[in-house]
Amino acid sequence: MAIRRRDENGEYREIDPSTGKFIDGEFPLASNLGQIEHQMVGTSHGRVIDTDDSDIEVIDSETGLAVISEDEAKIKQFIKDAISIDNLVATFNDNSHETLLKLLALQDNKHPLKKGGIGIAYRTDALIMHCKMEFTADENVVFDAILGAMSSFPENTSYRIEPSSFVKYSRYKNSNTIYNTFKKGTDKLKERLLTFEELGPDGEDDIIVPWFNILRYHNKKDKNNSYIEFAPSDFFKDLALCSQLVHGAYGKLEVTTQLQGKYTIALYWYLENMKRYKEYPTATPGIFDLSVEELKHQFSIPEAYKKAEIERRVLRPAMESINSVDECDFTFTYEARYVDGKHVGYRFDVAEKNYIDAKVVEVIEEKTNDPMVDQLKIFFSASQIEFTDEEISRIYNCAKRNDKDALYMMQIIPTFKQRLDNSAMEPIDDKVGYFCRMIEQGTSPKVPAQNNQSNQQKAKPGFTNFSQRDVDMAELEKAMFNKNN
After folding, report:
1. 205 in the Ramachandran plot: left (φ > 0), alpha (ψ -120 to 50) or beta?
2. Which residues are in the Initiator Rep protein WH1 domain (predicted)?
């Protein structure tokens, strides 16, 4: 039970029972999920606040009023003047920053990510992420590299990006893959334009703008000398730098090249930027809520998807894949949130991994492998299942974490092979994540006790009676995904 008493200002504040001192920091006592916009909530200090109001960072010491930035003042004025697309076009070539502010002001209020009513601007990172959802995996690798180069050298007007610099960061089995990825991604991005939809007060206007002045891939005979030449448009450069979306994309490639599926990669980048987010000053970093509407809009999830489909197609595969990558510096979990029995969104908990700081020392030693690694290679080869050495290593680590031996693995591989070959079901995007779930939860969905008893009565003792089980893959998959719910 929380204990509160009045402070020197007459406000009720929570105190620490062990010390009797006020607990520093004020925070809302309820989530805004499922609430109407600008609904008032109580705080830990006993006040009632509007959580949709923007935080006041600077206060004028003489007047006590909020001091807003010049950009925010312009955006509010653009909104008040109800500017049109024509106003944006008029300054596009002359003033890129003002054009960006107009684009923010033109965002329709019905967008779920535009919080706080007519006076609050749409987030620039959301604009870029929404565009990225339409890109292929190859395009996203190149686009992320471009964003990383721009954030690292914001003063440059043009950039030279060499795929050879990324080889050591990628986790592709063949080093040639990174060069092919950069070439294909660049060729596809040449045809891409940035599309901003549903602009204006009625959400009826769209605008398509170019994002580069120069983009070409120089394919040299010696692939190590190949490079991308890129010169961003002034508008795109301002948009990218204001978003602060990606820093050091070079190093993140070792993570993204191990992820599969557009939702998984997009969610990784989103969580990477939210891992230190605090809902209020004393909050635990990385914990935040997303409404169903926000989630669908942020990641271009079809409106028809219900809770079960969102979790089966988006959240669970992403969690399994991201959490299984050793090089990723965080893990995450999610929890469905309800209001009056209605599913309204999810709470995400992003936890950074704790690494021990140590001096790097080169150690030369003879590496000894667990025999189980070689056994897994033999099992998969015999079953005609293709996994890279890196993927087999991840599967091995998962088996060790769950205390499973080679015999257990040999028993579940045929069921996994059956699922891979089942053309009636959707292809598996993340084979490693799916296989790890089978390791953790087994291959047999639960059946009623009477059926088990009946089967036991029918079964005859003796090793020669063994036969491979006939597994209903749809039922198995449903049981695997719902086991922890």
Report:
1. beta
2. 125-271
Q: How far is CA 405 from CA 88, 373, 399, 423, in A?
A: 63, 11, 7, 30
DSSP state string for 242-256: HHT--S-HHHHHHHH
Q: What is the pLDDT of residues 94-149, one digit of tens each?
A: 888 888 888 877 765 444 444 433 333 345 666 777 778 788 888 888 988 888 88
410 Rama class: left (phi>0) / alpha (psi -120 to 50) / beta? alpha
Taking only the tens place, the pLDDT of each residue in 154-203 is 889 999 999 888 877 777 777 788 889 999 999 999 999 888 877 766 66
**Cα 252 from Cα 272, distance rounded (Å):** 10
Predicted TM-score (pTM) of the model is 0.57
Burial class (CB in 10 A: 0-12, 13-18, 19+), 358: exposed
Q: 224: Cβ–Cβ under 8 A, 6 or more apart, which residues?
A: 164
H or E segment to which residue 287 belongs? strand 287-291
Read off the pLDDT of residues 397-421 as tens digits, 9 standing for 90 and up.
888 888 888 888 888 899 899 888 8
- Averaged pLDDT of the chain: 75
Residues 79 and 106: beta-carbon distance below 8 Å: no
How high is the pLDDT of residue 393?
86
User: Residue 303's CB: how many other CB atoms inside 10 A?
Assistant: 8
* Cβ pair 314, 321 in contact under 8 A: no
Residue 410 host element (H or E): helix 406-420
Structure tokens at 316: 């669970």
Contact of 345 with 294, CB cutoff 8 Å: yes
Rounding to the nearest 10 degrees, give the CA dihedral for residues 426, 383, 396, 477. Answer: 30
Cβ neighbours of 373 (radius 10 Å) = 16
Residue 106 pLDDT = 77
Residue whose tokens read 């535009």? 114
Give the chain's end-to-end CA distance (angstroms, integer): 29
Residue 167: the pLDDT is 79
Residue pair 269/298 in contact (Cβ under 8 Å)? The answer is: no
For residue 251, count other CB atoms closer than 10 A to its CB: 14
- Return the percent helix, strand and coil in the chain, to nearest 5: 40, 15, 45
